[in-house]
Specification:
Number of strands: 10
CATH class of the largest domain: Alpha Beta
Largest sheet: 10 strands, mixed
Structural class: alpha/beta
Keywords: NADP, Oxidoreductase, Pantothenate biosynthesis
Shape: globular
CATH superfamily of the largest domain: NAD(P)-binding Rossmann-like Domain
Pathway: Cofactor biosynthesis; (R)-pantothenate biosynthesis; (R)-pantoate from 3-methyl-2-oxobutanoate: step 2/2
Protein name: 2-dehydropantoate 2-reductase
Distance between the termini: 61 Å
EC number: 1.1.1.169
Radius of gyration: 19 Å
Helix content: 40-55%
CATH topology of the largest domain: Rossmann fold
Number of domains: 2
Catalytic activity: (R)-pantoate + NADP(+) = 2-dehydropantoate + NADPH + H(+)
CATH architecture of the largest domain: 3-Layer(aba) Sandwich
Length: about 300
Amino acid sequence: MDMRVAVVGAGGVGGYFGGRLAAAGGDVMLVARGRHLEAIRANGLSIRGAAGDVTVPPGAVVPSVDAVGRADVVLVAVKLWDTEDVARQLRPLAESGAAVVSLQNGVETREALRRHLPEESLLGGVCYVSAVIEQPGVVVHRGGFQKLVFGEYDGRRSERVVELAAQWAGAGPEAEVSTDITRMIWEKFVFLVGLSAATTAVRQPIGVVRGDAGSRALLLDVMRETVAVGRARGVALDPSFADERLAFCDTLPPDMAASMHHDLTHGNRLELPWLSGAVARLGAELGVPTPRNSTVADILSPYVQGAPATAG
């Protein structure tokens, strides 16, 4: 049976995965806002990329969580600073039985969501994709990978996670169930923090970063520190996982960069406090040194709220 899936935050990630499912005939409602919402209402949501171009009709978008009506699953794909506000809005849906899955960056979203939502409504989620809003109403997919992973936090292979993963069969993205979703979230976090820190601080895509000895060392050290923090928190990360991720970085398209790099170059707000900033903060709490992440957080600090005003 098809689930009714609501996607809160139809930007690069939410627009891509929700749009692919909707284009394949899935029962999907996309929640968007601002100029992106207006453009989708006028012309539908266009998704472009190596996996093929599709257009989602305007009727699949709504302006708010209240307008969703009913949902079996809610995918949360808003920027991290909006998590608490969205969680409050989702409470009626969660209390009516909807499962809530965060596809956001970071490793602290479960704690943020559980402050406002029933614990039993929460599922873990991880996504792998490079997709951004190129212009209002248009999401561009860069690179070839497109994958979703879902899981119960207690490791059960429940009926709802199996059914959720099955929704994307035939829609394009790969989807699977994990029995250790917390580790999966941290494994993505290690890679994401490294890619975000290095490409944003250097202001260059991964091809340049990995090809220079100094920036390559920065990338590896940032990931090693993140692994150390995760292990100190009890996550079963392999001690050599950062080196494995560096090898993975060598396989990426040379023009690939993190979404934080895109946000910096476009003068947008940054998720830095939940990425390198979070590694530095958690490291301080746990007594784990994080000099590279702390330095990246300091270097990029003036840009956290967007392009800084020019000093007079």
